[in-house]
Design brief:
alpha+beta, Immunoglobulin-like, 9 helices, elongated
């Protein structure tokens, strides 16, 4: 109280020497407070504002006066103070201008600054041991609204936001082939940092260049689509439903003329009309390119093998008779031997073809690319 009286007397004494506009500052003298840190973990803050030039401004924190600040020729003022550690952490600041006649202006609008000293939760990766391709994304959860910092082999590489549900994605890290250690930590709006996440051990596979070339080509043609995270995952296995979709798109893009018209549709007990690949499977099965199993199923989610891939491609290329002739010549060989021989002769086999093993997306892409080129060359008539 004594400080306020002394300050008021000082202003009254100086009033006669203040510029003329200060005498006219009865109206429009209400200060404006602003800050760049609405949420902070720093106890000491600077309160800044605007009021009439060369005037005194009384600043309050939580309705207690902090004293007077003096504005410069541009009407700017600042006051260094601390934030109180109160429930909720919200500190309320107001200000009023001390006028030449000893009265005060109206109070400014309230400025709120939140003191947050609680660190966010440590991010949690979806998995702590992963096998990746170089551009594949990683996912995890963290405190909603925080930023997640990504360290690869102890080197910070990027930071990404956690959404309102706390989900985050690293985006492409462009990792080199081999083993990598990946860590995360989170930082909230106030600048508090979390502890480190559990260590993620990632092995990045080297992708054969021919896979990338074939998959890029098929992606550009709309035959083989990538995943939402921007990857093509050439080392993933391919389901029978996926292969049917790839094959149907490749034939359509190559202006394939079905030899069976009208088509004789085949119904499979495990493939209802609402299945995402229903139309593709019906198309390729009606043309005899892919077949079901003796129990009447198609098994759409089962991984396709090399022998099933080459049989479908040879039939699509119109080489069924050649395959049957080769099979008759081979006599006691497995049923797919003729398809494999003819497929090799016409460049439809992917590298390291293994008929009994499940085919990879990159391998399928190479063979589909060859089929597409062959169909274009012969006018797409099987």
């Amino acid at each position: 109280m004594k400080f306020r009286i002394v300050a008021t007397i000082l202003v009254l004494v100086l009033a006669g020497s203040l510029p003329a506009f200060a005498q006219e500052a009865q109206e429009g003298a209400t200060p404006v407070l602003f800050t760049s840190t609405p949420i902070t973990n720093q106890l000491i803050v600077t309160i800044e504002g605007q009021a009439p030039p060369f005037s005194f401004v009384e600043v309050f924190r939580n309705d207690r006066s902090l004293g007077l600040a003096y504005t410069d020729q541009n009407g700017k003022f600042s006051l260094i103070t601390y934030l109180e550690e109160i429930p909720g952490g919200i500190n309320a600041f107001r200000a009023r201008t001390l006028l030449p006649d000893g009265s005060y202006s109206e109070f400014s609008s309230t400025l709120y600054i939140t003191l947050d000293l609680v660190p966010p939760l440590a991010p949690l990766p979806e998995s702590t041991s992963v096998i990746l391709e170089p551009t594949q994304f990683l996912y995890g959860s963290a405190e909603p609204g925080s930023r997640v910092f990504v360290l690869v082999d102890s080197v910070p590489v990027k930071d990404v936001p956690a959404d309102e549900n706390g989900r985050f994605s690293t985006g492409s890290l462009n990792l080199s082939p081999g083993w990598h250690d990946i860590l995360y930590y989170a930082q909230d709006q106030a600048g508090n940092q979390s502890a480190f996440s559990p260590l993620v051990t990632a092995f990045v596979q080297e992708i054969p260049s021919q896979y990338a070339q074939a998959m890029t080509k098929l992606s550009d043609l709309g035959i083989m689509q990538g995943y939402p995270d921007g990857t093509m995952r050439p080392l993933n296995k391919v389901t029978r439903a996926e292969f049917a979709a790839f094959l149907a798109r490749a034939l359509t893009k190559a202006n394939y003329t079905p030899p069976t018209s009208p088509a004789t549709f085949v119904t499979f007990s495990d493939l209802p009309p609402e299945h995402w690949a229903y139309q593709a499977v019906e198309f390729v099965s009606a043309q005899g390119l892919m077949k079901g199993f003796p129990d009447g199923t198609f098994r759409p989610e089962e991984y396709i093998t090399g022998k099933e891939v080459i049989a479908a491609l040879v039939r699509a290329a119109g080489l069924e008779r050649e395959a049957q002739a080769a099979q008759a010549y081979l006599k006691d060989a497995p049923w797919f031997a003729g398809y494999s021989v003819v497929g090799a002769q016409h460049g439809l086999l992917y590298p390291d073809f293994a008929p009994e093993e499940e085919a990879l997306r990159g391998e399928v892409a190479i063979s589909l690319s060859s089929l597409y080129d062959a169909l274009l060359l012969k006018g797409a008539t099987p």
